[in-house]
Amino acid sequence: MTVRVLGGLTAAMLAASILPANAAWHGYFNNEAGFSFNAPGEVKTTKAAYKSAIAGQRNATLFTSVEDNVEFKVTVVEFGRTSDDSAIIKEATSAFQGKSKVLADNDARVNASYGRKLTVDLPNNGGRSMAAIYFNNNHLIEMEVTVLPANGDPDSGDMGRFVDSLAFYVDRSDADMTELKLMK
Question: In terms of C-beta distances under 8 Å and separation of at least 24 residues, what long-range contacts does 95-101 make, across chains too?
C-alpha cells in the first residue's frame, strides 16, 4: 500500500514538473476610471501619450503583463467630460484595426457601458490580437491581448479570459484585488 501511494505521489510530481509554468491570475482595479480586470503575472504601470484626432494628445496609463509570449495590456486615457464617447470609441477601434486582417468586430457591453470587441491577425505574421474598447467615467479603456507567433496558439483561451474579465462598478471588486493608480 505504501509503495502504491509513494509511486502515485512520484508520478503526480513528475507530471506537474513537465507541465508549462502558468502564472496565477490576479484581480486588479482602478477607482479613478471605475473598472477592474484579471491578468496573469506581475502587472507593470507606465505613463504614455495617446494621440487622438478628435481631442489631441492626452495623458495615458498603460498596465502591462507578459506571460508565455502573450502580451496583456490595458490602456487608460483621461478625456474629461465629452459628449463624443462613441466617436472616441470609433477612433480607437480604427486605430487598433490599422492594417490588420479583421477577424471579428462586434458591439460589446459590460454592465451598462457599450463598446467594441475586435479580433485581428497582425500584419507580417505578427500574431493575433483581441481588444475591447469602452468609455467609462470620462476615460477611454482599451483592453488588448496579443498572442505572439512564438506562442504558436493564436486561439489561446487567455485572450477571451483577459478581455472578458473587464468589469465596471469597482465597489463589487473582491477584497484581494490590487489597486492600480493612473499616472498623471
Answer: 96/120, 96/129, 96/131, 96/133, 96/142, 96/144, 98/123, 99/123, 100/129
pLDDT digits (tens, 9 = 90+) for 149-160: 886 678 888 899
Nearest CA-CA partner of 45 in 34, 61, 32, 69: 61
* 3-class DSSP assignment, residue 33: coil
Selection from 174, 183, 162, 177 nearest residue 68 by Cα: 162
Cα distance between residue 10 and residue 5, in whole Å? 9
- CATH superfamily, domain 25-179, is Mog1/PsbP, alpha/beta/alpha sandwich (3.40.1000.10)
Is residue 40 within 8 Å of residue 165, measured between CB atoms?
no
pLDDT at 19 over 80: no
- In the numeric block, the cell 492626452 is attached to 58
